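queue> pop job 88
queue> type: inverse folding (structure -> sequence)
queue> payload:
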């Protein structure tokens, strides 16, 4: 990684801060400070541009792009995001909440603790191109849903589709029910799709949903009325509402494509998360092995190349990500140890967010074929930086740069529940370890308690 003189000074200053703080250099070459229950990124959002891919030529193996401007609170992370997972990992719950019309996030009270580690710079760089790395960034976006679960001032398609290995409504324990406002139809279509290993999997139900996750083209004002948040996306093993599981098996099992130029595209993921599939499935209760990955998009399909999702690779299943500067992602997951082998990213699990344009063109490969290199946005939520580590680090990657070396304790033999709150009102993103249930709606009081959880500051320049 090349540093200019300003960046080099920043690195030296950060290292001096680490040395003076209660931080330790570990054997893997990374600094770690203190365990924490929350990490708060402040001053998120910049004005700038990145190179938006406009074509991928299978003849010349070249990609073309043009600059696209962005600005605002949390920008460019207010654009649509896809959610990515790498093993060893078992995902127990995932959800996305949007504020009802009238919900306003409050500014957090007071300063966060552990300011000493607020502005550290990692020694590694990564774009999750199946290598480890780190850097920092910040984000923005705004979108709302009304009490009936309908998007407000939506310009994106209004119909979302999710499919699962069991009906969504059947999973009614632990507040996993789906509201009637979200579910419009259920079709008992049963398909058998063959996996690469010859086994079969059953698709029991298709649930058509209205008012799914708003896209980045959604707009809203700051006039609010009531304070609840509506869960618009939800997953538990075997059940998926307004979310689409994908991986990098394009061209192997009925979806996506492969070429000698760009390799495997994204594809629908089979219920084991590893194989490809010809249609969308809810993930089963599975544990990814080291190096295995899948991703989650919303249930809303893109309208077509160069449409509401912009350009994307021809022949892929293309879905919207999760846009907006006011939204909450929730997770419950386990990251067990995996000592079976020494492959790539062995025993280095991670959960991160990408600008959804990146996997729709090329996540791994020619840098000119995605907008990552030019700063369209990545945020690492929970990442192990070296094999066997128990310290989960967070970083932001874009034109700002920033982060903290404080860490969450890796959940081995137990699960970690966390909320990631995008608060465009005060330009902050909160990653918070929580104990609350992820029911169909959240009260503003609950969200405010998360916002005010003491933790580690990660101020961005």
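queue> result:
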């Amino acid at each position: 990684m090349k540093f200019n003189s300003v960046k080099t000074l920043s690195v030296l200053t950060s290292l001096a801060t680490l040395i003076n703080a209660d931080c330790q250099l570990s054997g893997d070459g990374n600094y770690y400070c203190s365990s924490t229950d929350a990490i708060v990124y402040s001053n998120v959002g910049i004005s700038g541009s990145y190179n938006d891919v406009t074509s991928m030529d299978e003849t010349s193996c070249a990609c073309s792009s043009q600059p696209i401007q962005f600005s605002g609170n949390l920008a460019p992370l207010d654009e649509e995001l896809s959610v990515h997972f790498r093993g060893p990992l078992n995902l127990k719950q995932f959800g996305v909440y949007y504020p009802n019309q009238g919900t306003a996030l409050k500014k957090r009270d007071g300063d966060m603790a552990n300011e000493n580690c607020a502005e550290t710079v990692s020694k590694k760089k990564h774009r999750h191109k199946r290598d480890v790395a780190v850097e920092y960034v910040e984000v923005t976006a705004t979108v709302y849903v009304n009490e009936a679960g309908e998007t407000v001032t939506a310009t994106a398609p209004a119909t979302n589709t999710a499919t699962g290995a069991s009906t969504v409504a059947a999973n009614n324990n632990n507040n996993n029910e789906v509201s009637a406002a979200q579910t419009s139809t259920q079709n008992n279509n049963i398909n058998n799709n063959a996996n690469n290993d010859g086994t079969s999997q059953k698709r029991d139900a298709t649930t058509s949903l209205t008012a799914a996750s708003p896209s980045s083209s959604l707009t809203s004002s700051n006039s609010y009325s009531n304070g609840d948040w509506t869960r618009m996306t939800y997953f538990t093993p075997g059940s998926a509402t307004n979310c689409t599981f994908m991986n990098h098996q394009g061209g192997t099992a009925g979806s996506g494509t492969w070429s000698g130029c760009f390799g495997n595209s994204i594809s629908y993921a089979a219920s084991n998360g590893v194989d490809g599939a010809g249609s969308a499935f809810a993930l089963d209760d599975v544990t990814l092995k080291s190096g295995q990955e899948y991703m989650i998009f919303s249930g809303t399909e893109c309208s077509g190349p160069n449409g509401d999702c912009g350009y994307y690779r021809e022949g892929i299943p293309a879905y919207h990500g999760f846009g907006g500067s006011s939204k909450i992602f929730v997770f419950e997951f386990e990251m067990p140890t995996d000592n079976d082998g020494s492959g790539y990213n062995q025993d280095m699990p991670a959960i991160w967010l990408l600008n959804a344009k990146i996997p729709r063109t090329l996540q791994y490969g020619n840098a000119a074929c995605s907008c990552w290199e030019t700063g369209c946005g990545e945020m690492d939520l929970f990442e192990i930086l070296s094999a066997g580590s128990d310290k989960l680090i967070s970083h932001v990657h874009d034109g700002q740069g920033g982060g903290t070396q404080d860490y969450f304790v890796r959940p081995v033999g137990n699960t970690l529940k966390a909320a990631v709150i995008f608060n465009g009102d005060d330009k902050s993103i909160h990653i918070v370890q929580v104990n609350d249930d992820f029911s169909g709606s959240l009260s503003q009081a609950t969200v405010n308690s998360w916002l005010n959880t003491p933790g580690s500051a990660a101020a961005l320049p």
